[in-house]
Automatic annotation (TrEMBL):
InterPro entries in UniProt: Scramblase
Cofactors required: Ca(2+)
Family to which this protein belongs: Belongs to the phospholipid scramblase family.
Organism per entry: Enhydra lutris kenyoni
Keyword Calcium: yes
Functional note: May mediate accelerated ATP-independent bidirectional transbilayer migration of phospholipids upon binding calcium ions that results in a loss of phospholipid asymmetry in the plasma membrane.
Pfam families (UniProt xref): Scramblase
Organism taxonomic ancestry: Eukaryota, Metazoa, Chordata, Craniata, Vertebrata
Protein name: Phospholipid scramblase
Amino acid sequence: MSGVVPTAPEQPTDETENQIKSPDPRPDAPPDYNSHFILGPPGPAIPVPAGYPGGLPVGYYSPQQPCAFPSYQLPAGIHPIQYQPGKYHMPNQPVPITWMPGPALMPNCPPGLEYLTQLDNIHVLQHFEPLEMMTSFETNNRYDIKNNLDQMVYIVTEDTDDFTRNAYRTLRPFVLRVTDCMGREIMTMQRPFRCTCCCLCCPSARQELEVQCPPGVTIGFVAEHWNLCRAVYSIQNEKKDNVMRVRGPCSTYGCGSDSVFEVKSLDGMSSIGSIIRKWNGLLSAMGDADHFEIHFPLDLDVKMKAMIFGACFLIDFMYFERSPPQHSSR
């Protein structure tokens, strides 16, 4: 009986129906429902890939052979997303920055200052440098300038050589370069070296900051005034004529509270704006990562806005810049 294929023994029809319709012994089993699935016409035959004599299981396709579904081709220059945005950032990719939309050019406005014409306050956020705390090596300061919507307005970078930074520390002369979203330097701030070993009331010992916008064109100065118990500055125009005054608190080293520097008129009767150094808890006490909030009127002359903006950095270097501790070797 070589031509007969052995099959399973047939069961009576009644027994088969009983097995199919027998209730499920589980107490909470769902009831049986009649399926409404209707088989459709057969699809096109897929060739069996080489190396798989028995074919592949249903639902699997060989990576070496073309599958029955056409693959989607991305346009040129576009890469597929490999991680959920904002959750699993790739270490070798820069963090995306949201910039403030660039305004149109305005007459009688230095190029690059058009952003300030639309703002009445800005935030100055200093980068935290862990290398300074670990190695006691002073690095160049970096700041992010943002609006209330957390959009980047400018980036400020210090440009000082290593010897000057680590030899003079907080008294060092510096150059700060302000760049916009296109990477163009739109403003330069310079502080010359001032000897502090002589009498503080001597004009040669007072700190001064020059603001240039565009770089090479001076628009004003921020000059320190000697005062016995508080920080006092004058904001001057390009001819060194006093325009506004900045009056700080009696103690700038208060722990647990903000330090407010008021911007007033020359007679001290009108309040124009303020420079507020925000208290950031333990980071403000131990780290060198300051947060300033600058307020000024929306309709204030844009050059005076830039001068108040520049005064913030002179205040930071004089009162809130902390040099890393020096580790003495024995």
